[in-house]
């Protein structure tokens, strides 16, 4: 039941199923699990089959929003699998405290009671699970990594089942739990690398498009120059001058920078279009809904335009500026990252102070932008921080969600 109700709460509203379809999905999942147990029994293969069978049934009901189902189901399965490992570990401790004739009963009661309480807590606190789901989804963690992680967990559960008769079950369980945690950490690390690789791939694809555009311009220029040369030979200099002026006016709008955005109508996209960033590539990856934060559009514009303008100035017409938004439980995070020059430690400690500026500030006209940014963010109960090294400078803005 939990593998149907929880994914249903995570999919988009227009894809949520009504009560009768939910009941049908629960019945089919239960039948599928029953058939698996009847055909395969309590073997090691049954662990993988009980993972896959419910997933495909649930996916069929929500295939129009398959990505959300895949993410929510595998997160839930991962949590339940880890809980199974912990309950197995706890079960071995309980066994040692009971007489031999009560060991099996005590073990079953221990495992089933822990799992039942855990599932009940998930159903009661679906909103907490939804926040976990949104946190993972908006960070663009690869679905493939998530699925591989759940299958790795299956292998650990199978391994636990095989060695369950060993005398050192508690020690083995501890080792398995550590392996799982290390694998999760490694998966998250490689997921971050993959996300950055996707950013580079998008930028390369956009550059290919720009190169193709420049090839066309080159071809066009070739034909036009040949025509101008013909006018020169005919000594029609006035006409040649007029055409040359038209050529210059026709192509002087070509921008050598790339802008990639997954939401061209968003506030952030509008801000970046309003700031001159010739030569600087812009990547916008917006995964969070900025309408859900308790800040006005004007305040958000004031905050981001100051940070982006400062970044563009520091980058001096070259490099890449990446802006990401994602969710983190009760907050929405805006990350503005550029690969411009490093900000020194002395400067970075004073960067949000009113009146502080690295520019010539004889008339005291500079040094208020980032101070206003910090004041605005904190007025909205948010936080802002900045880090800088030789590879990147990154501003992190954390803003709380609106209270429903």
Automatic annotation (TrEMBL):
Organism, scientific name: Clostridium paraputrificum
Record's protein name: Histidine kinase domain-containing protein
A GO biological process held by the record: phosphorelay signal transduction system
Segments crossing the lipid bilayer: 21-37, 43-62, 69-90, 102-123, 143-163, 169-192
Signal peptide: none
Keywords noted in UniProt: ATP-binding, Kinase, Membrane, Nucleotide-binding, Phosphoprotein, Transferase, Transmembrane, Transmembrane helix, Two-component regulatory system
PANTHER family recorded: PEROXIDE STRESS-ACTIVATED HISTIDINE KINASE MAK3, SENSOR HISTIDINE KINASE
SMART domains noted in UniProt: HATPase_c
Keyword Kinase: yes
